[in-house]
Amino acid sequence: MTLPASPLSVTELTGSHHEVGAEHGRIHRHLIERGIEVYGQLFQDFVGIRWEEARDRACHFEAQIAQGFPEILEEMNGIAWGADVDFIDILTLNCRSEIALTQASGGCSAFSLQRHGKQWLAQNWDWRHDQLDNVVALHIRGDGRPALVSIGEAGMVGKVGLNDRGIGVCLNAIRSQTCGVGLPIHIALRKILECDDMPSALAVATHDRVCSPAHFLLASAQVGNEGGQAVGLEVQPGEPGRIEPRNGIVTHTNHLYAEDTPCPVQDFPRTDSRPRLCRLDTLLHDELPPDADIDEARLFGILSDHQGAPLSICRHFNPDQPAEERMETLFSVVMNLSERRLTLRHGKPCESDDSLSISLS
């Protein structure tokens, strides 16, 4: 594992789901406590409810998790034990999208790129600045499960990452009032990261389903001479919409745009989503030469783009927005799935070349 200088370090977690959770909770106890405070305020700002009410809402998802991914409940119990908080507090953190995204959606610009026999994934994660210091990099080696890296928030079991089978996933939040039967978004992301291959990863979206809308950009290095495969999945309680690669590229921001979606749902995107998608398409389809050398620095350059600011791919503090809606880029990640390598920049990718590189090969 290569670990250059970075504001973040890797948290190494091993063992059963409960053991992984207990160590996660013990190491990041103070960050988890702060995350509960942050989301307590966020729930008040976005949906007008107190933390106690959010806990009540989260309890409704426990049975669905028990049906679709029961082992992860053991891990959440372990996190709660290690952090010395209630299990329901950890459940609430992991269901925060289902509780809050009826009114709020982060920024998040994501793309996949297949070039020269290699499959890449990349994204910015845009959210409220008060979660910046609660970002964690988890390297999990579970008993009998694929080793994985997940970049997310302390106390939460999964978000953006890859595993040693060459499976990777990115996330775009979708603002919608739809919520049905399925796995909560962050639970589904972690289940994908424990999958051995692309068919089982796809089954999380098509069989288990996801209880509220989001976009999962799913990719795999496991396609022989083609060098990888990717698909955009606009997940929801029904059959997800699919976005197939065009010239080896899939792009997505924070609105639904898959054609011929079997079970369409309504979204309520903010004004910046479509300009960011258009800019991603321009950078990748029009301005990136087909024979260009691709590496992490070039892709971080795309994630650092400021054209159209403040509605740009790289998001900065915008005083013209209401305080509760100000979203900034909190981390950027570039994944080379073919080489099982994830590279992270904590904070805005334009502000520093310092990065954390984790290799699972």
From TrEMBL:
Domain Peptidase C45 hydrolase, chain residue ranges per copy: 117-349
PANTHER family registered for this protein in UniProt: BETA-ALANYL-DOPAMINE_CARCININE HYDROLASE, PEPTIDASE C45
Protein name, entry field: C45 family peptidase
Source organism per UniProt: Billgrantia antri
